[in-house]
Amino acid sequence: MAQNGRGGFSRCTCYAGNSMKTLHISVEASLKKLRTDYIDILYIHWWDYMTSIEEVMNGLHALVLSGKVLYLGASDTPAWVVSQANQYARMSGKTLFAIYQGEWNVLKRDFERDILPMARAGGLALAPWGVLASGKIRTDQEERRRRETGEKGKPPALARATGAELLMVERMACLGRTLTSAQWERTETERAVVKVLEEVAAKVGTKNIQAGEWIGCLFSVRC
User: Fold this and answer.
1) Mind telling me which residue stretches traverse the membrane in this protein (predicted)?
2) Mean pLDDT, to the nearest integer, of 111-131?
3) C-alpha distances in Å from residue 47, one per residue of 74, 76, 183, 187, 207
4) What is the 3 state secondary structure string of 72-129?
5) Class of CATH domain 2-131
6) Which terminal residue of the chain, N or C, has fewer Cβ atoms less than 10 Å from its own Cβ?
7) Strand ranges (DSSP E) for the chain?
C-alpha cells in the first residue's frame, strides 16, 4: 500500500485474485464484518488463472491452521483445477477442498459432465446454485404476460416498492432477471425443456412446473 506525496488517496496492490495476500486481507475483513473469529466454509469464488495452485492451497491451508477457517470450498472452478489442487494438497499434507459450489438446474446441466464425477471420485460435497434457472422455468403464458405488461424480467415487488425501500432494491433488483444475463426471455431449447416439465407436472398432478423439475430430475433424467 502506498500514499501519494500530497497525502491523498492510497494505492493498493494485490487486492484481487487468489494470492496469499488477497486471501489474508479478505478473510480478515470478513471476520471483522461478521463479528466472529472463524469462518465455517471459505469458498474460492473466482479462479484467477494467474496465482499458482500451490500458492492458493498453501494460503488456504495457512488460514485453516490459524483457526480462522474450518473447511475449504471451490465455486465455479473447472474440475481439472479442483482435482489438481486437491492432489497437491494430499501429496503435501495440506487441507483439501471439501465442497464444490456450482450452477446446476434442469436447463443447464454442464455440472453433470465433469463436476459430478470429480465430486464422486474425490468425496466432495455439493452445493448447487441457480437451481431454479434464474426464473426461466416458467410457462409460455407467464412469459407472454411479462412481455405484454412491460414487466419483462423485473420482479413484481420492484413495482410496489416506494421511498427508501425502492432505493434499497433498485440497485440489485432493477435489472430483475437480467442481472446475470441481458436475455431475460427463454431460448427455444429452454422452452422445449419447460414443455416437458409441464407434461411431468400434469402427470404427477401439480400445477407448479418448478416442482415438476425436481420430480423429473429424480425419476426421469436420474440426476
Assistant:
1) none
2) 94
3) 9, 8, 25, 29, 40
4) EEEECCCHHHHHHHHHHHHHHCCCCEEEEEEECECCECHHHCCHHHHHHHHCCEEEEE
5) alpha beta
6) N
7) 2-3, 10-11, 39-44, 69-75, 97-103, 125-129
What's the pLDDT score for residue 137?
85
Read off the C-alpha cell for 169: 432494491
Cα(78)–Cα(81) distance, integer angstroms: 5
**The three three-digit cell numbers of residue 36, written as one number:** 466472529
pLDDT tens digits, 152-175: 655 555 555 555 555 555 555 555
Instruction: Compute φ and ψ for 193, nearest 5 degrees.
Output: -65, -45
Q: How many CB atoms lie within 10 A of CB 82?
A: 24
Neighbour tally for 183: CB within 10 Å: 12
Domain ranges across the chain: 2-131, 139-182, 186-223
